[in-house]
Automatic annotation (TrEMBL):
The keyword rRNA processing does not apply. One of its GO terms (cellular component) is membrane. This is Biotin synthesis protein BioH. Keywords: Biotin biosynthesis, Cytoplasm, Hydrolase, Serine esterase. It comes from Snodgrassella communis.
């Protein structure tokens, strides 16, 4: 299978939403593999209390989606990673006229397992990660990213040399605990029936934070969804396998642009 990147123009807006504990710089390496034409229409914000974004003490997924929706003037391609995918889900369900397509990578509708949702996790290790991030953000962010890149090509791992300083320049996110609480409490399953746009689901076979079964659940619930698994990727497939990730994403965008 060829890894050739398909050049294209994106006439509609493109919104990339990062996940918990990171900021917009997490997408820096991916952007080199995506179309440059039309990037003046791109929006890559920081979530509240992450990166340089202010934090008022509350972190509400729907409210964040509401705020982002006001910035979208025409149909938008959404890409949401992890917690950012939950924001993207909320936006797509409640503002369908503003969404051209939705890509969820390593994301979820619900984190914790329940009797009617065995796909969730029985326990969460992110609380320990939040404590470590607060203690020494550069050190533990680097460790986290290195773990995600264990099975990546050397060329992909090399991006960490510039990525970690870029992410860590703002210090630890002030919303770590509030965002983690929102992630643990959120249940977006009732919104899935309202998603009426094309959906691309890209997951990593070695992801222990949002295992593939969470994506498979979304695939079952979203009739217009397409499923793509990167067997050797972990929780950041767009970093560990950027060529393949970008090829699949570009092809998807091309079909719905």
């Amino acid at each position: 299978m060829s890894n050739e990147i398909i050049p294209m123009t994106i006439p509609s807006q493109t919104l990339l939403i990062h996940g918990w504990g990171a900021n917009h710089h997490i997408f820096d390496p991916l952007q080199a593999h995506l179309p440059t034409i039309g990037q003046e229409h791109w929006c890559i914000p920081d979530l509240p209390g992450h990166g340089c974004a202010p934090f008022d003490g509350t972190f509400n997924i729907d409210s964040i989606a509401d705020r982002l929706a006001t910035q979208l003037s025409y149909p938008t391609h959404l890409l949401g990673w992890s917690l950012g995918g939950m924001v993207a889900l909320s936006l797509a369900a409640r503002y369908p006229d503003k969404v051209a397509s939705l890509c969820l990578t390593a994301s979820l509708a619900k984190l914790m397992a329940s009797s009617d949702y065995p796909q969730g996790l029985q326990r969460v290790s992110l609380n320990m990660m939040a404590s470590r991030f607060s203690e020494d953000y550069p050190k533990y962010m680097q460790q986290f990213l290195q773990l995600q890149m264990l099975y990546a090509a050397p060329s992909a791992r090399a991006c960490l040399n510039s990525l970690v300083p870029a992410i860590c320049q703002y210090g630890p996110p002030t919303a770590l605990n509030a965002a983690l609480h929102a992630l643990e409490q959120a249940d977006l399953r009732p919104l899935l029936s309202s998603i009426n746009c094309p959906v691309l689901l890209i997951y990593g076979g070695r992801d222990a934070i949002t295992p593939p079964r969470m994506g498979e659940y979304l695939h079952q619930q979203l009739p217009q969804s397409e499923w793509y698994l990167l067997p050797q990727a972990a929780h950041t497939p767009f970093l560990s396998h950027p060529d393949e990730f970008a090829r699949v994403l570009n092809q998807f965008w091309e079909r719905y642009s």
